Amino acid sequence: MWAHTKKSLANAAMRAVDQLIALVKNRLKRMQYRPALVTGFPAKTSLDFRPP
């Protein structure tokens, strides 16, 4: 998730840390509304997350 978020921040020019925090929160909040994207991250790893 972090790599995906960093890509959207690549060309952002922030003047203060507060602006960066607000932008990161905004990007993460956007992800919440894209469940297919969020569930796709663990699926892409090909790991089995079921309990043994």
Portion in beta strands: under 5%
Number of strands: 0
Q: Note the gap between the termini.
A: 25 Å
The rounded Rg comes to 14 Å
Description:
The chain is mostly helical. It has a domain at 16-43. Helices cover 67% and strands 0% of the residues.
Provide a quick synopsis of the model.
The chain has 52 residues and is mainly α. The chain has helices spanning 2-9, 17-32, 35-45.
Main attributes?
52 residues
List the helices and strands and how they pair.
Blueprint: H1 2-9, H2 17-32, H3 35-45
